[in-house]
Amino acid sequence: MKGIVTLALRRPVFIVFLTLLIGIGGLIAYFYTPIEAYPDVTSTRARIIVQWPGRSAEEVEKFISLPLTQALSTIPRKRSIRSISLFGLARVSVLFDDDVDDFFAQQYAAARLSGVKLPEGAEAYLEPPYGATGEIFRYILRGDRPLRDLYALQTWVVERQLVQVPGVADVVSFGGEEKIYEVQINPARLQAYELSPLDVIEALARSNINVGGDIIVQGDQAYVVRGIGLLESPEDIENLIIDFRKNLPIYVKNVARVIISAEPRLGQCGYNELDDVVQGIVLMRRGEDPSKVIPRLKEKIHGLDSRILPPGVYIEPF
Q: What pTM was computed for the model?
């Protein structure tokens, strides 16, 4: 202690400089250190979600979970692999050592996933890197439009805009109705034309497509030739040709009725006095500072409300 005091008295300029240096370092740490109410202490992980609709848990385990686990076992610096097989759903999680960053984990998991041949109809999805405490923002989409339209705006507009905010990993939606075009086949008419439901399905599949052609040159201009065939309304579906009989076309409207409907609902989301709403949860990327991500989110939401969303539709945070 006597030596420290002697040094401080003999080198006052150096001590003052060291004190200022420590103070500047403290200010930098105060303004730039991420502060979270509940710090994420979970291990680095890469999680793969595979949907295979209509398949039993045994089939999912045999044809998806086991091949994925075997392929992911060769990833370096992994600690363990865990899988869950459910009806129509598989989830495989790879846990890494504590010093592994998320970029390394995601890169290797995506590389291994691309080499796995999944069964037909199975869709794989690599979750973005977020932790157990990554839920930083919740909102509902309110407006004077049908619930089906609000769900479409949430899926095709709001989600795509919010995931562009730096620091956001994903947006998870709940509630609402997913719009579909439903073809209600009349069995009696189908039998009268000697057709099967498979004929109708094949006609729908081969007709819902755009075709690119060549170009036609006229003088100093060139015109692009295209075949437009994407279906946009129930009338377009009703006017599709299934087959020809005695040089007469058989349309979809001759054997079925096309209506706008919704996918079967497996749940419902409510908020206060509203018993059916569309809700969104914003997930933050691991390692980001929520005190910086949330102001960016609010700025993006203000832009959505004022410039992008239709009149009468707005985002209400809660």
A: 0.74
